[in-house]
Design goal:
Layout lengths: L1 H14 L2 H7 L2 E9 L4 E8 L10 E5 L2 E3 L2 E3 L8 E7 H6 L5 E6 L9 H9 L5 E6 L3
Antiparallel strand pairs: 1-2, 2-6, 3-4, 3-7, 5-6, 7-8
Length: 136
């Protein structure tokens, strides 16, 4: 019985890492609100589990443009939410139905193209997520 319990605990420790659980769970995005005073559109990204908090940064890509000004409340129960602040002038330039992606870390210039980011998302890597398309 002890060996079975030890084996079970080892399996849980190996397969329950936080960054992997984010990749396996559904990530949803919505345009939260327009803050005309601050001249931003707040884009909220939610996950069914907590986002990993580490040494890198989450970056929102809409088409080939990226936005990294964000707020992540790490107090419970809001670790599953990141708010990105997209300048209103930039948001107005974005086309409706543009693909959106979330990455953990910045992409180099070559990988910022929509097709490249989409390919990275299909690799089931725990650092790249497709968020669907922008609905303005």
């Amino acid at each position: 019985m002890k060996n079975y319990l030890l084996l079970l605990l080892t399996a849980v420790a190996l397969f329950a890492r936080p960054t992997e659980s984010v990749a396996k769970n559904r990530i949803k995005m919505k345009v939260h609100n327009v803050d005309k005073k601050e001249k931003n559109v707040v884009v909220t990204v939610n996950c069914s589990t907590d986002f990993y908090v580490g040494s890198d940064v989450y970056v929102l890509y809409i088409g080939s443009r990226f936005f990294d000004l964000s707020e992540q409340d790490i107090s419970n129960p809001y670790k599953h939410r990141i708010k990105f602040f997209v300048p209103l002038a930039d948001y107005n330039k974005l086309k409706d139905r543009t693909p959106m992606f979330l990455t953990y870390g910045y992409l180099d210039d070559e990988n910022r193209k929509e097709e490249k980011i989409a390919a990275l998302c299909k690799q089931n890597n725990r650092k790249y997520w497709s968020l669907g398309r922008l609905n303005k």
